[in-house]
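Here is the promised in-class demo. Please do not try to memorize the tokens; focus on the logic of going from shape to residues.
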């Protein structure tokens, strides 16, 4: 068994380690980069619904403002996606 392990260890190259590192980094980038926009969009939707419940006549204005705020919050998620794609295909 020891010889098999030694053979596997000797066949792992630096390129394999770089490949593992870039996939791991891209996954972590997307995982952490998606948490912030998700929380921000959830809070924006919750507060917009609170406002609509208090003043139903302002539903159109609040919905439009909420959608704009969520689009701005999503840009950080898109930036993390771009970084993850760069990690996968350029590095």
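The designed amino acids, position by position:
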């Amino acid at each position: 068994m020891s010889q098999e392990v030694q053979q596997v260890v000797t066949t792992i190259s630096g390129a394999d380690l770089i490949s593992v590192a870039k996939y791991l980094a891209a996954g972590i980038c997307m995982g952490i980069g998606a948490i912030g926009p998700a929380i921000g969009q959830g809070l924006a939707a919750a507060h917009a619904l609170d406002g609509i419940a208090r003043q139903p006549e302002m539903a159109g204005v609040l919905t439009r403002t909420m959608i704009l705020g969520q689009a701005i919050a999503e840009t950080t998620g898109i930036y993390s996606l771009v970084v993850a794609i760069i990690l996968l295909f350029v590095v």
